[in-house]
Design the sequence.
């Protein structure tokens, strides 16, 4: 019921040698200039209580990233206001690019990745987040992810 990407689309393994770059399972910095956190786009599954999620990367401003990192291990961090960001994960299953969709990253309690809320546009991913997907759509996504053409 979830699929994830290991790094923002702009990450290159060559950045590992750069002392101003880092990639962990939740945070990424590229050349000390580009800042990302990993979160979940959650999509309700129609007809049940299940939630499908995409593990994605969102680029944040330096200020927002610094604030998020400062509070990363702080109890009560979920009271923090959302951080504006740009989706930095291309989900090729959608007919339109998902890269650079506007988002808000909502911090959640310790041990839970941020909730990524997409701007309410007519992009198919944003529509799915608002209206939900059927179990058949979940199977379609699973087939496409696990058995790419």
Sequence:
């Amino acid at each position: 019921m979830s699929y994830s990407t290991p790094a923002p689309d702009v990450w290159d393994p060559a950045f590992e040698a750069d002392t101003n770059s880092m990639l962990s399972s939740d945070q990424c910095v590229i050349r000390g200039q580009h800042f990302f956190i990993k979160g979940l786009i959650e999509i309700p599954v129609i007809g049940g209580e299940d939630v499908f999620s995409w593990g994605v990367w969102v680029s944040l401003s330096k200020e927002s990233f610094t604030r998020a990192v400062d509070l990363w291990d702080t109890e009560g961090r979920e009271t923090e206001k959302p951080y504006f960001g740009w989706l930095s994960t291309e989900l090729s299953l959608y007919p339109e690019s998902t890269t650079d969709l506007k988002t808000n990253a909502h911090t959640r309690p310790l041990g839970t990745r941020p909730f990524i809320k997409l701007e309410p546009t007519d992009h198919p991913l944003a529509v799915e987040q608002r209206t939900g997907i059927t179990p058949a759509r979940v199977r379609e996504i699973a087939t496409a992810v696990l058995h790419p053409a």
Summary: Residues 51 and 86 are 23 Å apart (CA to CA). The two ends are 20 Å apart (CA to CA).
